[in-house]
Design brief:
Chitinase A, domain 3, 217 residues, 3 helices, 8-stranded antiparallel sheet, alpha+beta, 26% helix
Length: 217
């Protein structure tokens, strides 16, 4: 066999083996827990800064709420009298205020639209791309074509439960949930363990149970 041909074939085999080894060792979710914690911490700090600025500019009572779209809520499964750590909280950005009369309780049900994301594998290099893991609508939200989902509040993860219990009919929010209030160490095909979750949630109706006026409203 020609010497040059032998060298070419040898180099090709080496490169092929190198590529295979590289592909097999690549882990898209390396440091996943730490990077997800970093993502939530950045959102939490930004929301707290925006709220603090609004409270400084509008110090009377809750006037600041009319000038700030961010909210930070402690999980309702823990005492509201204790400060706790940042991962005891969810971060919410209000896209649209609804006109409902009441928020659902833990024992109530809701009819809602949602889309859920986990962060991009390349975070923090990429902070804008997200991976959808579940949704009730496709493309841009359109109430005329989207199909709402009816669900008991209690059936969702802790952070989702908390968000919904602060919402009313017509509310449209983005909700950031730390891994501690989501699925923690539990993984699924769509959601790796220790994932921070981002939801777009829009409440269509609330079903009150055990009241003088039960039913969807």
């Amino acid at each position: 066999m020609n010497y040059r041909l032998k060298v070419f074939l040898l180099l090709s085999l080496v490169l092929l083996a190198s590529c295979k080894s590289s592909d097999e060792s690549y882990d898209a979710h390396h440091d996943w827990q730490a990077r997800n914690a970093q993502w939530f911490a950045e959102v939490y700090d930004a929301a707290q800064a925006a709220i603090a600025e609004a409270k400084t500019l509008y110090p009377n009572g809750n006037d600041w709420e009319e000038h700030c779209d961010w909210r930070v809520y402690r999980t309702l499964l823990k005492s509201q009298e204790v400060q706790g750590s940042s991962t005891d909280y969810i971060v919410c950005k209000i896209n649209e205020h609804g006109d409902g009369d009441w928020s659902p309780a833990y024992t109530d049900s809701v009819r809602l639209y949602y889309r859920g994301w986990i962060m991009d594998e390349n975070y923090p290099t990429s902070k804008t791309n997200m991976t959808v893991f579940s949704q009730t609508y496709y493309g841009d939200f359109d109430a005329a074509t989207a199909a709402p989902l009816a669900m008991p509040v209690i059936s969702t993860v802790e952070g989702f439960q908390t968000a919904v219990q602060y919402m009313v009919k017509g509310d449209d929010w983005l909700v950031y949930i730390p891994q501690e209030l989501a699925y923690k160490e539990t993984a699924s095909d769509a959601i790796p363990a220790y994932s921070t979750l981002l939801f777009h949630i829009r409440i269509e109706l609330v079903h009150k149970s055990g009241t003088d006026m039960p039913g969807w409203r």
